[in-house]
Amino acid sequence: MVRISIPTLPSTPLLPPTQLSLLPLNLASQHLSRFIQDGKGKTGLITGAGVSVDSGIRAYRGKEGHYSNPNYTPILYHELVENSPRGEMFRSRIDWARSFLGYPPVRDARPNPTHIYIAALQVLGLAPKHITQNVDNLHPKAISVIQSSFPSTFPAPPRPTLLELHGTLAKVHCLEHRHEQSRDDYQQELADMNPVWNEEAKEAERTGRRPRTNPDGDVDLRGVDYTSFRVPGCRICRERGGKEGIVKPNVVFFGETLTPQVRDQSLTIASEASRLLVLGTSLATYSAFRLVKQASESGKPILIISTGPTRADGLKGVEKMDRRAGEVLRTYLNDVLKNQTTPEYQAVKESLDKGVIKLPPDVEGPRAEG
């Protein structure tokens, strides 16, 4: 039997704040400015769940690096694909029933200010290539916010490189033929086949009593009878007269490996970057940590701006600001945009205040960026 554990940070004593963490905001911004300027337009970005907390999506880990909900048990990949009645239960009931209720809050979330600031770094060519661990589709939405601000007489530039390392909740695919379709369309199929569950979901939305949603769109439900929940197979397989494949969200489950294409693209982006700017993540997941480790071993500068410990703390070449990334990015961008009048700078200026803050219901005060 293979034992798979949830990625977590090594158990190490909390270190005192670094000198960078103690800098006043204006000096922290100046340090970031020098870091990006020295990258000469080839600074690579890596982001994590902490960036999305201000959009109402909880991070996995809290300020001290601990798993925020230790009693929560996610669906593991080997359970999802197991060819047995138990596997069928996980696929057809627990996984999709929980995901059916957890998807709407993620679907409806809007980019917060930090998403907009990160998109601005890309659009302005300051850090054009971005690898995110997030599956919430908020980074693509943020890029669209800025691109929609370009005047019609000056078309928006091509979308910058964004690799969603762990996939996206905006799509689903079948395991049989990899047929891909919109998650919104599949969500409607689930609603049509499960009217009682759909009414419960609508009531939760009306009253604001939605269950606790994790960054992957899953929810923690206790004492629920899943046996009534029905799950359709792949619509595209059905329309083509073939065997209906099992439908899976386009996200990497715990215990699942990245596809070779995504893995290779992430390694290429990281290797071609002159340095790495890491925002809002503890790097507990190895698929992201190895990119930072590779950069460290190559002698590249690395700047991490995130709250709490990270897996990369102590690596050669790593500088750490233990603070929220958004405030440093905004101060830096205010200086960059000062006295700039070209269309791309104007579009970014118009977009900076379009981020929307909506905290998770149980988050108060300083937000963690695990």
Automatic annotation (TrEMBL):
<dbReference type="InterPro" id="IPR026591">
    <property type="entry name" value="Sirtuin_cat_small_dom_sf"/>
</dbReference>
<feature type="region of interest" description="Disordered">
    <location>
        <begin position="200"/>
        <end position="221"/>
    </location>
</feature>
<dbReference type="InterPro" id="IPR029035">
    <property type="entry name" value="DHS-like_NAD/FAD-binding_dom"/>
</dbReference>
<dbReference type="GO" id="GO:0070403">
    <property type="term" value="F:NAD+ binding"/>
</dbReference>
<dbReference type="InterPro" id="IPR003000">
    <property type="entry name" value="Sirtuin"/>
</dbReference>
<feature type="domain" description="Deacetylase sirtuin-type">
    <location>
        <begin position="22"/>
        <end position="339"/>
    </location>
</feature>
<keyword id="KW-0808">Transferase</keyword>
<keyword id="KW-0496">Mitochondrion</keyword>
<dbReference type="GO" id="GO:0017136">
    <property type="term" value="F:histone deacetylase activity, NAD-dependent"/>
</dbReference>
<dbReference type="GO" id="GO:0005739">
    <property type="term" value="C:mitochondrion"/>
</dbReference>
<dbReference type="InterPro" id="IPR050134">
    <property type="entry name" value="NAD-dep_sirtuin_deacylases"/>
</dbReference>
<dbReference type="Pfam" id="PF02146">
    <property type="entry name" value="SIR2"/>
</dbReference>
<keyword id="KW-0520">NAD</keyword>
<keyword id="KW-0809">Transit peptide</keyword>
<comment type="similarity">
    <text>Belongs to the sirtuin family. Class I subfamily.</text>
</comment>
<protein>
    <recommendedName>
        <fullName>Deacetylase sirtuin-type domain-containing protein</fullName>
    </recommendedName>
</protein>
<dbReference type="InterPro" id="IPR026590">
    <property type="entry name" value="Ssirtuin_cat_dom"/>
</dbReference>
